[in-house]
Structure formats: C-alpha cells, structure tokens
Amino acid sequence: MKVILLQDVKGKGKKGQMLEVSDGYARNFMLPRKVAIEATPDAINTMKMNDKATQERIAREKAEALALSKQLREMTLTVTCRGGGNGRLFGSVTNQEIADALAKNAGIKLDKRKIVMGETIKNVGTYTVTCKLGYEITAPLTVKIEEA
Q1: Which of 1, 36, 42, 121 is the most buried (most CB within 10 A)?
Q2: pLDDT for 122-146, tens place per residue?
Q3: Burial class (CB in 10 A: 0-12, 13-18, 19+), 3
C-alpha cells in the first residue's frame, strides 16, 4: 500500500514523503496513529501543491535575505552608549543594543541571536559585526559606537 507520511517515522522516511509499505503495517500502525494517510490521487495532488508552495516560499525568503544583506553591507549604524570618558564605555555593547538601534534607526527587525560579534565592544570606535540572515546568507554590518 502506498502512503504519504504526515510526520517523520524512524527507519521509514521523512514527513511529506510517499512510500510503499505492507498493507498490515499501514492499516494496523500508520493509519490509526495518524502517522500517514493513504496515497489517493487527491492526496498526491495535495502533496505536490504543498511542495510547490514550500519551494516558492523558500525562494521568496532567499530573495528577501539577499536584498537585506545588500542593504546591511552599505549601511553604517550609529549606537550611542554611556561612557566614562577617554573612549571607554560603562559595560559593553550587546547584541540586543545593536538590534534595537537597527530597528529604531533603519526600521530593520533582526533577532539579537542573528547578530554575531567577533569581540566584545568596550570602547568607542567603528566595529564590524556579522548578521546571519538564514539560507547561509551573511552580511557584515558596520557599527559606529559613540559616547553619550
């Protein structure tokens, strides 16, 4: 019997995959537990439409990430922090502060976990941080730290 998996099944396959299993295994295990559905022509058509929609969504998200990476490469973000004079800051600049400044100044919402700093920023100056945008796309962002 041909079935379409609704979730990952160890030793059989991944969600959305169509495979051939014995009739007893399908009727007694997979179908009652809602792990799979029978591969009827209607179900196969629905599966193909879902795959096509997923591919379109992935392509759209990749294009958005590439556009955002181009925008981040060209921008210089200014972050103002409290300092103690002589170019030293009280504490250090965090990923959250950079994400907040990015949202406030440029209108770009980026999760703090996607901003990777190579070193801790404790002094006034210009630094480069890396922004992970997904789909193996990264962009350098120039951050200028100023003392308030």
Answers
A1: 36
A2: 999 999 999 999 899 999 999 999 9
A3: buried
Contacts of 61 (CB under 8 A, 6+ apart): 134, 135
pLDDT, one tens digit per residue, over 59-101 is: 999 999 999 999 999 999 999 999 888 889 988 999 999 999 9
> CA 62 to CA 84: how far, in whole Å?
43
